[in-house]
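Anyone up for a design puzzle?
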């Protein structure tokens, strides 16, 4: 089901006495309409099915609304518009239907010239988003298959087998690429070895994926992580960037399904996002796993809002 934009979420401080340049996101974001100028298109994926199937803590379905509330009060430093495309709402366990609707909506946004940023939902969102991107590129492909780089900032490889869940998305993406005879290019930065079995690393090797551990992604080693990311970006034509908030330390992002025992510092994550944006290859972004039930002071939502703002630059 698609739910239209709820403008009541876009509310916050107004500094009218400071003039027309003292505006915030809630004064600038508008609902998406047909024929509007290309811009950043925010699309929610209100879904708990993937997290529940993966035995995680439900509540991610409430993430898109919480993220909009956190975005609302950010100062506006943009020239291009931001549109609210509403939410794809997954009813109960109907994840596959939700993926299909999400994919179709992402395709339409890309065809209209927008840069979609999808607000999860659990990390199952990545498969639906990628499917929409793949369809858009297939519709506009030349003789050669597009080379899509999937950059995942995440404590988990999410390469599990079995029924679709928040832990299977990138294995599903690998299967979708194989079905289209496209290369699978996947880089996961921030991997927690203690949260990923040897079987998952075996799968990553078999699929030709690349990864970097959280302990190798410290501020002191940022140059190494940036160089690895830069080399990956140079090998692809288009980028799907996905951020699972559980890549961050639990003290920075407690409001997730599986808080990180270590995590990667926010300044590192922000720098990596900047590197992707600066490449000029980013077509699609998303932020996943925001769970407001475990975020009582809203700090995780505020961090997520910073990352969404970065993706839209």
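Challenge accepted. My sequence:
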């Amino acid at each position: 089901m698609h739910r239209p934009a709820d403008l009541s979420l876009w509310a916050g401080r107004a500094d009218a006495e400071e003039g027309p340049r003292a505006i915030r996101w809630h004064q600038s974001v508008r609902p998406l309409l047909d024929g509007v100028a290309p811009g950043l298109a925010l699309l929610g994926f209100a879904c708990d099915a993937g997290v529940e199937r993966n035995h995680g803590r439900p509540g991610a379905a409430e993430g898109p609304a919480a993220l909009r509330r956190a975005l609302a009060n950010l100062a506006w430093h943009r020239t291009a518009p931001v549109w609210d495309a509403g939410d794809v709402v997954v009813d109960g366990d109907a994840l596959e239907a939700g993926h299909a609707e999400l994919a179709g909506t992402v395709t339409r946004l890309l065809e209209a010239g927008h840069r979609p940023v999808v607000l999860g939902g659990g990390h199952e969102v990545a498969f639906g988003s990628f499917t929409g991107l793949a369809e858009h590129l297939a519709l506009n492909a030349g003789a050669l298959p597009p080379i899509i780089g999937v950059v995942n900032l995440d404590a988990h490889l999410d390469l599990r087998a079995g029924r679709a869940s928040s832990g299977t998305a990138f294995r599903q993406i690998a299967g979708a690429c194989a079905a289209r005879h496209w290369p699978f290019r996947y880089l996961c930065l921030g991997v927690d070895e203690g949260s990923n079995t040897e079987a998952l690393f075996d799968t990553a090797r078999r699929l030709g994926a690349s990864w970097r551990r959280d302990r190798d992604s410290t501020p002191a080693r940022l140059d190494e992580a940036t160089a690895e990311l830069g080399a990956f970006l140079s090998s692809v034509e288009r980028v799907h960037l996905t951020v699972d908030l559980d890549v961050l330390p639990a003290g920075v992002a407690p409001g997730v399904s599986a808080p990180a025992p270590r995590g990667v510092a926010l300044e590192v994550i922000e720098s990596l996002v900047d590197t992707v944006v600066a490449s000029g290859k980013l077509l699609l972004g998303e932020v996943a796993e925001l769970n407001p039930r475990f975020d009582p002071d809203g700090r995780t939502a505020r961090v997520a809002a910073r990352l969404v703002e970065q993706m839209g630059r």
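A detail worth pointing out: The CA atoms of residues 161 and 168 lie 6 Å apart.
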